[in-house]
Write a structure and sequence with these properties.
The chain is built from six helices and 26 strands. The chain is mainly beta. The protein folds into two domains: about 230 residues, Sandwich (Jelly Rolls); about 200 residues, Jelly Rolls, CATH 2.60.120. It is about 15% helix and about 35% strand.
Length: about 450
């Protein structure tokens, strides 16, 4: 049987759609090209509150948003979200298309095509947003539209990533292509093969005092104008790859203080730890503080650590070489399993991982799974200490401003205002492991 030219063209177009939906190696297609399987409705809503809601409240919220997402427009008679020729089409209205699954670190590929005066964006872990808009719309130049799409528009004015580095938008009628990489709170964006955001911190729109969630959905925003999406592919980034990406950034000026073979250059009760497979591994039943034997003032420390269930250790900050690290030194920066309570019992929030022990609590929930390596950077400058764990700042504190009447157990911290000392490890009996330890003096 012969096929007509029209039928042949239709089959060719269908074949092209099917071929286009094939994700690159290592990626998964978030949109199957046929329907909205894997997607629900969403909104500008703090994802932490979604997670804190009861299952019944969460289901009701999702049902309300999804109903709004799929409702039929009174003028066109079409649903706000539909699928046409393998493209996910939104008329500019309705709830946002939101993945049912939450993601941590990832690489996202997505193509979009929009119209004049349209305004949209991509929410990362439920947080707005990688901006999409009409770069020719003079009415929005005051908001930065003339700079183009791809910036982290909801970041504070003047912060890195707020505006795209270059104008990379294609003319209307052509498809634009994003590549977005997110590790911790850090985001890099490429638009049409040009990098427009380089490793910038995505601020938490809902509460800028805390970091973005460690996990959350991808959301495609609706904002008043038609936008079409296709080839939406995502690759989840594991902890090993994430650590390598973090270590590859900003490494100038760092010098190793652990050679990976022995404890040369270290002091203190060295029998507390052994070197195994290139790492310092704390020995069970041992306690004490070992330290790199060079006194430091202001510095940045980088290292990787791995915890067993309920594992407990610490980083000695400006340690004087004797006495209790947490009190005689500037502080002990906690190294602790985020699920410590489930293993060993209740703790004060100021004992959680990354905290300035007993004084200032760090944010929680950003560790990699137990027995996987974590990447941490600690910056000590004057009376301040900042801790970035796996790409997310979990502590940023000025210890000179701590009200000592409110510290844990109202204990004195005579070393809090020290301006120099040693960097080390303060072990507490558990086989916590450390590797790739390096220091940059400031």
């Amino acid at each position: 049987m012969k096929l007509s030219l029209v039928t042949s063209a239709a089959l060719f177009a269908l074949h092209a759609v099917i071929m286009a939906a094939e994700p690159p190696a290592g990626f998964t297609a978030l949109f199957n090209g046929r329907d909205l399987t894997g997607w629900r409705g969403g909104d500008t809503f703090d994802h932490r509150k979604v997670l804190e809601a009861t299952p019944e409240m969460r289901a009701a919220l999702f049902e309300k948003w999804t109903k709004t997402m799929l409702e039929v427009d009174g003028k066109t008679g079409k649903p706000h979200w539909s699928v046409e020729n393998g493209e996910l089409v939104n008329d500019g209205h309705g709830a946002y298309a939101t993945t049912e699954k939450d993601y941590g670190d990832f690489e996202l590929l997505v193509e979009y095509k929009t119209v004049a005066r349209a305004d949209s964006g991509i929410y990362l872990r439920g947080v707005p947003q990688v901006q999409i808009w009409d770069s020719t719309n003079k009415g929005e130049f005051k908001n930065g539209a003339d700079k183009g799409s791809g910036g982290l528009w909801n970041n504070s004015p003047g912060t890195p990533g707020k505006d795209p580095a270059v104008l990379a938008d294609k003319p209307f009628g052509e498809w634009n292509k994003f590549r977005i990489v997110m590790v911790g709170s850090r985001v890099s964006v490429w638009l049409n093969e040009q990098q427009v955001v380089d490793w910038a911190v995505l601020e938490n729109f809902y509460d800028r005092k805390v970091a973005v969630p460690a996990h959350g959905p991808i959301e495609l925003q609706t904002h008043g104008g038609e936008i079409r999406w296709r080839n939406i592919f995502l690759r989840e980034i594991g902890s090993e790859e994430a650590n390598k990406m973090l270590a590859a950034r900003g490494g100038d000026g760092f010098k190793p203080v652990f050679n990976g073979k022995d404890m040369d250059g270290w002091a203190g009760p060295l029998d507390c730890a052994k070197v195994e497979d290139g790492a310092i591994v704390w020995q069970k039943g041992k306690g004490g503080t070992i330290y790199a034997n060079e006194e430091l003032g202001d510095f940045v420390a980088r290292l990787e650590f791995k915890l067993p269930p309920g594992g407990n250790n610490g980083l000695a900050i400006r340690y004087p070489g004797k006495g209790n690290t947490a009190y005689e030194g500037m502080t002990e920066c906690q190294v602790l399993d985020d699920n410590y309570e489930k293993v060993r019992g209740k703790i004060d929030p100021r004992q959680a991982h990354g905290s300035a022990y007993g004084m200032v609590a760090a944010q929680r929930g950003y560790q990699h799974p137990i027995n996987e390596w974590n990447f941490e950077e600690v910056t000590v400058k004057g009376s301040t200490i900042k801790v970035e764990l796996n790409g997310t700042v979990i502590l940023d504190a000025d210890l000179s401003k701590v009200d000592m009447a409110t510290v844990m157990a109202k204990s004195a911290h005579p070393g809090k205002d020290r301006t120099s000392g040693f960097f080390g490890l303060a072990g507490h009996d558990d086989p916590v492991a450390f590797r790739n330890i390096s220091i940059k003096k400031l």
